[in-house]
Amino acid sequence: MPDTFIKIASVTVGSGTAATMEFTSIPSTYTDLVLKVSARSGSTTGTNVAITFNGSSSNVSMRLLYGTGSTAASLADSTKIAWEQSIASYTSNTFSSADVYIPNYAGSNYKSLSFDDTSENNATLAFAELGAGLWSSTAAINQITLTSSSANFVQYTTATLYGIKNS
Amino acid sequence: MPSTYTPIATTTLGSPASVVSFTSISGSYTDLRLVSVYRGTSTGINCYPNSDFGSNKSWTAIRGTGTVAESSRNSSIAIQDYWQTVTNATGEFTVSKMDFMNYSNTTTFKTVLVRRDVTSAYTEAIVNLYRSTSALTSLGLYSASGNFDTGSTFTLYGVKSA
């Protein structure tokens, strides 16, 4: 039986920092994509990881359900698809985790996303989120860019892209 | 390295349909994952395992609408991936993932974890309970209203723990 959950590529921030992490030349030979992200920003204020496709930040929207440890709330945003990440004021060595599912990424329909993420913190404030994202484009996804919205990703931030085949 | 995430069957609709079925599901996996990418008019998935239409299911949901976070629970005759049905926006497809844990055991009731996303309306997480000790051998996916549109896809994967 062939393996159908296959690592395509992985990116790790080395010594120093990085403003973005990028996957390019994504082959169209899979059915769906899964992206796993472990991230932390050097920012001292709340910041997030934004995902864009094919170098375009247009025609994106999302809907979030999130809990902070004290409240649950929901928001909608028509300017970005993004999730919370750990920041410099969080517990040392703590990185946020995100799991992003992108079905039918190479098809000609608009691209829907499903994502879950956490930014755990040994303090009062932390985040758990469920998210829906939409890139209203019929183009096949061949590039994914992750951008830290404030300050850069710190060393050891990682992202791994997997391809899933349905046959 | 043996494959631990195996496609069992997939259906892509070439024309609108109200029902998609997976039958003769092997018991050789640990868990099942159903990935559905669909659209339609005010629809969601009513999943009937083993053609069981009895009132022996229930669910608890959390949902974000974009303005509020809310929760509900209910009894049901189906394993559902939705709290309320919704019509997709133009060009938008719903993403639904259902995880059936330990689906082939014959001693415990079956828990099903669901994530469903309709960006124009909701993001949801739902836990379903199917109060049956029977192994799951078939899944009937019924549109909650009307049809699933052309281009909707439904794929069942088997997940092995080793």
Could you characterize what this model shows?
The complex is a heterodimer of chains A (167) and B (162). Chain A has 167 residues and is mainly β. Chain A has a single domain, classed as Jelly Rolls, CATH 2.60.120. Helices cover 0% and strands 49% of the residues of chain A. Chain A has no helices and 12 strands. In chain A, the strands form 2 sheets. An 8-stranded antiparallel beta sheet of chain A has the order 1-12-3-8-9-10-5-6, with no helix packed on it. Chain B is mainly beta and 162 residues long. Chain B has one domain. Chain B is built from no helices and 12 strands. In chain B, the strands form 2 sheets. An 8-stranded antiparallel beta sheet of chain B has the order 1-12-3-8-9-10-5-6, with no helix packed on it. Chain B has a 4-stranded antiparallel beta sheet with strand order 2-11-4-7, with no helix packed on it. In chain B, a hairpin with a 3-residue loop joins strand 9 and strand 10. Chain B is globular, with a radius of gyration of 15 Å. Chain B starts with a strand and ends with a strand. The relative contact order of chain B is 0.39. The chains are: A mainly beta (167), B mainly beta (162). Chains A and B meet through strand 5, strand 6, strand 9 and strand 10 of A and strand 1, strand 5, strand 8, strand 9 and strand 10 of B.
